[in-house]
């Protein structure tokens, strides 16, 4: 079991490393930070020596060979230093620091959304498989189908518009944008309750997507389990339908679901990017959009590293889960 | 990209098929086994017309009989007609500004209203629909091609000795690598560079990040097929591997590829919409449904409801057809029970 | 007979399907009395399994059922799931066909047996139930039951899993045991052991038993009464001797005569269809052709000291060899022109590996394979391609051996196309081949799914014959077929052998199948040939211990002989160990 998970982990670490390096090389060769740092319409021409120094200190000088820049970046990576941000902002904030303030904000969304969505999806999928063709099954299957046919922004818009409608009608609604109200004293109960309320809508959106895809997969695996020989044996032993399903079926149906979990976290990252943009949260997703928009090579590489680690951890967790559930692969 | 809304299945698809195979499930087999098909006399004449109808004919009938397929086809056809003929009804072009009417609701001149920047939402939505359709169809076909090539080759060589296993391992790791890479980020990296050349670059770009899951499924299916006795038989007859791939393997996974391509259209449309929505997709002088949505205003719902509705109708109609195809292909399979 | 345990009256089960309603069981009625063993016999699709699931109340919800089933005076259809659950596993228990999928893979075997005890006796402690599970495992003859109880199903062999299933079925001393094809997935020797175990368990418990099977041989030694089913209806029913020695219906007679018999030599009169057909053919050959001694005929295939060793590796990144599996361990045999050699052995004995080594036409790891005198290792690419038409194969599973997307005409053309035949010649040959294997030339445009199993196997044979091969390798060609169909295919093969002078390498796990078709038999075990000789010699006077064991294990469709071969196998002491208070009922 430990062997199995650690072997998988090693593969994932290699994959994550390759992916991040790939992303860095791509970003460094495709982006032109010098154009953003010194736009052509700059009022005062900057002396070339100063410009060179500016670029060198940020490790984005296009005159330095790509692999030298990569080597420098890699050296920093080993020491836990991801370089500094570039772009229109010239303050040179270390990428690590930027990530450290933003990751908790994003992770809050991703973790909550994935966990609630997964649990909900598994429950709905199992119930709709067991009570196949009931009204509940039809409704949930239809809702999942429609939800998966809508892009994330549209779902966010629907949720926001609904909230707006409720607010217009009753005068009470959830905060639409910003996770923190700057007018409230930090640490006070008002501030905390505002933060919790602000979390509701984004979490609903992410959980809905996770639940929709999970319920579909879960329904398929559960239906397979329902038609299996071992469940028939369990019932022949004298277990009722419900108890046979919970004692023997559920665990078997969950085994293939483990692998989807890794994808669900990746999907939640993509979803959280839209959520952060549209709810104005200062998280990783927003940072990613602005980094790429401003040709921030180091920032982009940092974001890719973060997502790679996130995927890696969730994939390892999925493997671990599968190992716990299924003695055959131990 | 690893789209959260991707309707396509993953690895389990092949497994699901196996589960529903009458040969593997004794109860199904004993029920399905037609007692009238006995050894003594062969099917003669019209009596067995249903049996000898042929697989493709049977598929077509099942598909056409499906209510959701009918709805999907009608809606999709209407949308295609709309995309083709809508420019005839433009009173304002998609980029023509009518600032005096900025942020005003639907009217006789602006059927869907005008957005904050004074642009006509009807014209923009229709223009976006055209672009989204082209990108969706093009990407789906290209994606399927990529995944068929990778999937079949990887699945086929995996059982061909040490070198085959090595090549298969390399391809599998390539698939995993693309899955680990946050594809949305890479799309955001590439897209602005390529958009400067032509908006059509969106098609290969989206395809590049969409083929992995399908390739994985096709690889698993091919591996199953390679182990079947008829492929083994072809090998022992001395049939060339390439001929085996095209004559025995491709036809047997063709229906799955068709379904996957159909669902890939909607996946590509959703991906393009998301990318354009955050400003990294289709750029001026073109407009896609994602860019139209970008100009949303919560206090004026007409700014986003028309493009969202068209988008939803488009994706839902395609998904309805895709799922109906899946039902028709394998009525007992897990996928059809969704 | 004493009191009735189960009575089924006028049972009809139908399923909805795309082509209208499928009638799985129609108007079936039977009774089972206390301590009686009833066998329900029928070929696939006859509705025998569906009827037994109806008794358990385990049919899927889509089935519509009419009629009446009474179990110990309680009407099954009036009970709800909860009440039925109290009966299942306690009063009535079931042994399923496929022991691989019938146990939940993620729970320990001991826990799964303990579960059935605890469900119906919640007053027993978990530890007591565990201890009982170990006793039960010991009772059904599993060595080291304490250790085995802690293992998972995938660590058990097929026979052991089926024993565990039986342990589960007898755990609560039920009044009725239903065994649904309990030995179909098992090897002959294991099959014999499991059947004996089941019989002794039934006798020990005094339980009524319903055995569902397609194999008349299994029935003979087990049942008191027999019910024959065909196409969802009952054909006839009666005492076992009556059915076997004085069958009334034609179908029953067909079923009986189709079973190949190991115990009867050709000289003795056998009613077997296959045997009769083969004998006729053999006589015809002897009449026309003066027999050339075997040694003077040219060898088609020679295998000398063939080895195939698979390394067992461990470690995902750095693969290191931890051992080796000697799949084929130095076997030698040869096949002369027009001869049929049978390679017989149980699963895992290396017979399929041997076939694959021959069919590859490559240099084997060790040893020599010669086809028509040419060594396969020395062939050029072109020669090998040409030789592919001389050695062809017929596979076991007629479902999987034909590409479902190709009309059978194209399937038969494929090898000829590889060998570069002209279009006219191919068309001509397809017609001739279809006729030769007993199909109509008009069928060439149809797809494999439109044919039954036996017909598909004929198509497979036609494809193997396409390029006038010298040797056809038959890999269990009849094991996936119903007995009546099997007889027809065997007769056709024998006929082809004499008419066309092809040699066969016939691989089978079943001695009774090869008896009438093969000239020589090689018995394989653990990668070696333990005995090789003329068919008659092997059957009448087997030299090796294993050959004797194999022969003894083959079920014989004759109740008197079968009964005389039985032994007691259920460990009574172990079974009664923890339940001495039940001793009186068990005896």
Automatic annotation (TrEMBL), chain A:
Keywords: Cell membrane, Membrane, Transmembrane, Transmembrane helix, Transport. The keyword Calcium does not apply. InterPro entries: MetI-like (IPR000515), MetI-like_sf (IPR035906). Signal peptide: none annotated. The chain crosses the membrane at residues 9-30, 105-127, 139-159, 192-212, 260-281, 301-321. Residues 103-322 form the ABC transmembrane type-1 domain. Pfam families: BPD_transp_1. It is a multi-pass membrane protein. The keyword Cell membrane applies. GO terms for cellular component: plasma membrane. It is found in: Cell membrane. It comes from the Bacteria. Its main location: membrane. One of its GO terms (biological process) is transmembrane transport. Belongs to the binding-protein-dependent transport system permease family. This is Peptide ABC transporter permease. It comes from Brachybacterium phenoliresistens.
From TrEMBL, chain B:
Residues 1-23 are annotated as: Disordered. The keyword Transport applies. It holds the Pfam family OppC_N. The keyword Transport applies. One of its GO terms (biological process) is transmembrane transport. Gene3D superfamilies: MetI-like. InterPro entries: BP-dependent_transpt_permease (IPR050366), MetI-like (IPR000515), MetI-like_sf (IPR035906), OppC_N (IPR025966). Residues 133-322 form the ABC transmembrane type-1 domain. GO terms for cellular component: plasma membrane. It comes from the Bacteria. The chain crosses the membrane at residues 69-90, 131-158, 170-193, 199-218, 253-282, 302-321. Coiled coil: none annotated. CDD domains: TM_PBP2 (cd06261). Belongs to the binding-protein-dependent transport system permease family. PANTHER family: D,D-DIPEPTIDE TRANSPORT SYSTEM PERMEASE PROTEIN DDPC-RELATED, OLIGOPEPTIDE TRANSPORT SYSTEM PERMEASE PROTEIN APPC. This is ABC transporter permease.
From TrEMBL, chain C:
Keywords: ATP-binding, Nucleotide-binding, Transport. Coiled coil: none annotated. GO terms for molecular function: ATP binding; ATP hydrolysis activity. The keyword Heme does not apply. GO terms for biological process: peptide transport; transmembrane transport. InterPro entries: AAA+_ATPase, ABC_transp_ATP-bind, ABC_transporter-like_ATP-bd, ABC_transporter-like_CS, Oligopep_ABC_C, P-loop_NTPase. Residues 6-256, 301-551 form the ABC transporter domain. Belongs to the ABC transporter superfamily. This is Peptide ABC transporter ATP-binding protein. It comes from Brachybacterium phenoliresistens. The lineage of its organism: Bacteria, Bacillati, Actinomycetota, Actinomycetes, Micrococcales.
């Amino acid at each position: 079991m430990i062997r199995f998970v650690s072997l998988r982990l090693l593969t994932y670490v290699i994959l994550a490393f390759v992916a991040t390096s790939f992303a860095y090389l791509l970003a460094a060769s495709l982006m032109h930070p010098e154009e953003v740092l010194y736009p052509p319409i700059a009022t005062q021409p900057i002396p070339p020596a100063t410009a060179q120094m500016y670029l060198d200190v940020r490790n984005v000088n296009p005159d330095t060979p790509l692999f030298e820049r990569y080597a420098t970046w890699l050296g920093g990576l080993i020491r836990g230093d991801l370089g500094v941000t570039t772009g229109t902002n010239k303050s040179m904030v270390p990428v690590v620091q930027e990530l450290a303030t933003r990751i908790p904000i994003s992770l809050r969304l991703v973790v909550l959304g994935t966990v609630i969505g997964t649990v909900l999806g598994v429950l709905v999928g199992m119930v709709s498989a067991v009570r196949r063709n009931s009204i509940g099954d039809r409704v949930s299957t239809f809702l999942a189908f429609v939800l998966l046919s809508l892009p994330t922004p549209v779902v966010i818009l629907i949720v926001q518009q609904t909230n707006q409608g409720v607010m217009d009608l009753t005068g009470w609604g959830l905060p639409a944008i910003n996770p923190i109200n700057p007018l409230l004293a930090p640490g006070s109960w008002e501030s905390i309750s505002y933060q919790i309320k602000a979390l509701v809508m984004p979490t609903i959106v992410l959980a809905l997507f996770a639940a929709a895809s999970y319920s579909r997969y879960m329904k398929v695996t559960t239906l397979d389990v329902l038609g299996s020989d071992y469940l028939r044996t369990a019932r022949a032993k004298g277990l009722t339908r419900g108890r046979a399903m919970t004692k023997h079926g559920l665990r078997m149906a969950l085994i293939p679901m483990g692998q989807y979990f890794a994808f669900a976290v990746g999907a939640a990252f993509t979803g959280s990017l839209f959520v952060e943009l549209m709810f104005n949260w200062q998280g990783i997703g927003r940072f990613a959009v602005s980094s790429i928009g401003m040709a921030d090579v180091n920032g982009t590489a940092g974001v890719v590293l973060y997502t790679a680690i996130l995927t890696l951890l969730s994939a390892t967790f999925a493997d671990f889960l599968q190992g716990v559930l299924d003695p055959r692969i131990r | 990209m690893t789209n959260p809304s991707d309707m396509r299945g993953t690895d389990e698809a092949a497994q699901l098929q196996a589960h529903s195979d009458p040969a593997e499930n004794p109860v199904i087999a004993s029920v399905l086994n037609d007692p009238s098909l006995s050894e003594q006399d062969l099917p003669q004449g019209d009596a067995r017309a249903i049996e000898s109808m042929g697989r493709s004919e049977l598929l077509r009938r099942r598909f056409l009989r499906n209510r959701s397929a009918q709805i999907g086809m009608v809606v999709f056809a209407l949308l295609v007609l709309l995309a083709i003929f809508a420019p005839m009804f433009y009173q304002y072009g998609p980029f023509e500004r009518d600032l005096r009417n900025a942020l005003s609701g639907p009217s006789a001149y602006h059927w869907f209203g005008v957005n904050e920047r004074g642009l006509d939402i009807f014209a923009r939505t229709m223009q976006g629909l055209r672009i989204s359709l082209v990108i969706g169809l093009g990407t789906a076909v290209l994606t399927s091609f990529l995944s068929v090539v990778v999937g079949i080759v990887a699945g086929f060589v995996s059982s061909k000795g040490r070198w085959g296993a090595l090549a298969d391992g390399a391809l599998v790791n390539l698939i995993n690598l693309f899955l680990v890479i946050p594809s949305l980020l890479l799309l955001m990296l590439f897209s602005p560079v390529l958009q400067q050349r032509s908006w059509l670059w969106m098609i290969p770009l989206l395809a590049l990040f969409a083929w992995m899951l399908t390739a994985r499924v096709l690889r698993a299916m091919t591996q199953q097929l390679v182990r079947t006795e008829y492929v083994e038989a072809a090998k022992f007859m001395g049939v060339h591997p390439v001929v085996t791939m095209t004559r025995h393997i491709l036809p047997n996974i063709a229906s799955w590829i068709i379904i996957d391509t159909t669902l890939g259209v909607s996946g590509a449309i959703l991906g393009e919409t998301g990318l354009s929505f955050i400003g990294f997709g289709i750029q001026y002088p073109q407009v896609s449904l994602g860019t139209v949505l970008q100009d949303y205003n919560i206090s004026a719902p007409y700014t986003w409801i028309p493009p969202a509705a068209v988008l939803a109708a488009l994706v839902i109609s395609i998904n309805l057809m895709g799922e109906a195809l899946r039902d028709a292909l394998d009525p007992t399979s897990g996928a059809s029970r969704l | 007979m004493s009191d009735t345990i189960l009575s089924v009256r006028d049972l009809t089960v139908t399923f909805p399907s795309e082509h209208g309603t499928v009638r799985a069981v129609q108007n079936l009625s039977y009774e089972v009395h206390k301590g009686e063993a009833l066998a329900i016999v029928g070929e696939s699709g006859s509705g025998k399994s569906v009827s037994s699931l109806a008794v358990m109340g385990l049919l899927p919800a889509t089935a519509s059922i009419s009629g009446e089933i009474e179990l110990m005076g309680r009407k099954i259809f009036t009970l709800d799931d909860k009440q039925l659950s109290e009966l299942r596993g306690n009063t009535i228990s079931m042994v399923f066909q496929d022991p691989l999928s019938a146990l939940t893979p993620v729970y320990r075997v001991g826990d799964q047996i303990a579960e059935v005890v605890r469900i119906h006796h919640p007053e027993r402690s978990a530890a007591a139930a565990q201890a009982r599970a170990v006793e039960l495992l010991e009772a059904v003859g599993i060595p080291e039951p304490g250790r085995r109880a802690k293992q998972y199903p995938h660590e058990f062999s097929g026979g052991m899993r089926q024993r565990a299933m039986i342990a589960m079925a007898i755990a609560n001393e039920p009044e009725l045991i239903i065994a649904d094809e309990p030995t179909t997935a098992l090897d002959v020797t294991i099959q014999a052991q499991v059947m004996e175990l089941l019989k002794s368990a039934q006798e020990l418990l005094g339980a009524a038993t319903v055995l569902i099977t397609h194999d008349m041989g299994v029935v003979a030694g087990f049942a008191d009464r027999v019910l024959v089913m065909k196409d969802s209806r009952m054909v006839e029913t009666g005492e076992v001797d009556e059915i076997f020695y004085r069958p009334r219906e034609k179908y029953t007679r067909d079923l009986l005569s189709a079973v190949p018999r190991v115990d009867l030599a050709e000289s003795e009169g056998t009613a077997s269809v296959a045997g009769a057909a083969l004998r006729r053919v053999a006589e015809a050959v002897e009449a026309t052709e003066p027999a050339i001694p075997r040694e003077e005929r040219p060898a088609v295939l020679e295998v000398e000291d063939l080895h195939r060793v698979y390394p067992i590796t461990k470690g995902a990144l750095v693969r290191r060899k931890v051992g080796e599996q000697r799949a084929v361990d130095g076997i030698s045999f040869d096949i002369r022109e027009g001869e049929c050699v049978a390679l017989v052995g149980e699963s895992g004995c290396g017979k399929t590996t041997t076939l694959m080594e021959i069919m590859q036409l490559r240099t084997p790891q060790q040893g020599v394979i010669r086809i028509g005198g040419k060594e396969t290792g020395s062939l050029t690419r072109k020669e090998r391609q040409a030789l592919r038409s001389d050695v062809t194969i017929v596979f076991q599973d007629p479902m999987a051996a034909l590409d479902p997307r190709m009309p059978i005409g194209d399937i038969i053309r494929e090898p000829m196309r590889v060998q570069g035949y002209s279009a006219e010649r191919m068309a001509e040959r397809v017609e001739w081949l279809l006729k030769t294997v007993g199909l109509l030339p008009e069928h060439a445009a149809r797809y494999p799914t439109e044919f039954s199993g036996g017909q598909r196997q004929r198509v497979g044979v036609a494809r193997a014959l396409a390029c006038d091969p010298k040797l056809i390798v038959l890999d269990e060609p009849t094991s996936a077929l119903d007995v009546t169909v099997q007889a027809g295919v065997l007769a056709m093969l024998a006929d082809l052998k004499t008419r066309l002078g092809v040699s066969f390498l016939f691989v089978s796990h079943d001695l009774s199948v090869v008896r009438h078709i093969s000239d020589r038999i090689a018995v394989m075990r653990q990668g070696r040939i333990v005995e090789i000789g003329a068919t008659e010699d092997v059957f009448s006077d087997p030299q090796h211990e294993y050959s004797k064991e194999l022969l003894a294990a083959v079920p014989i469709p004759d109740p008197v002989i079968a009964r005389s071969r039985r032994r007691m196998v259920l460990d009574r002491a172990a079974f009664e160990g923890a339940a001495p208070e039940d001793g009186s009922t068990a005896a």
